[in-house]
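Much of our argument rests on the idea that a fold can be written as discrete symbols. In the encoding step, the backbone of a single protein was reduced to a row of integers, each denoting a local shape. This step matters because it turns folding into a mapping between discrete strings. For completeness, the protein is quoted in full, as a sequence line and a line of structure tokens:
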Amino acid sequence: MADSPLKIRTYGDPVLRAVARPVEKITPELQQLARDMLQAMYAADGVGLAAPQIGKSIRLVVIDVAREESERNPIVFFNPEVFPDDESDLAIAEEGCLSVPDVWAEVARPDRVTVKALDIDGQPFEMTVEGHLARAVQHEADHLDGRLFVDRISPTDRAMLQSKLKKMARGRK
């Protein structure tokens, strides 16, 4: 896979803490941005990427949790809204993030959610997802609200990661 021209922003970049604005109209340029984001995500060996992570403060997320190239199933979400399933249990699993490299921690999230969004062609859709895909949807949607997975970890884990996060933020300047 060729490298992507998009640069993934890292912890400490202010764009990662901003609330992204809704997409008013899906243009050919935004459709191409979504395709470029998928390329960047695959090149970085990620399963999701939100527009703020590449410096664009808009409500756009791409996700593909398939690990094998032959099984790829990319999903593009413009203006996603995520609703936890009232019956869903909280699941604890380790998360990482392309914008917080080499940091992994356990995060509790609902195991099943419904997401409403517009697809790459601007068509509304709704899907209920669970497991790894539900986690990825919630993780990426958090980016659109200026939230990172490290904001959701236990105080103990946060304390253990604090020096690494501070060093990462300083390295950006």
The first strand starts at residue 48 and ends at 50. The mean pLDDT is 94. The beta strands are 48-50, 60-63, 75-84, 90-97, 100-110, 112-118, 124-130.
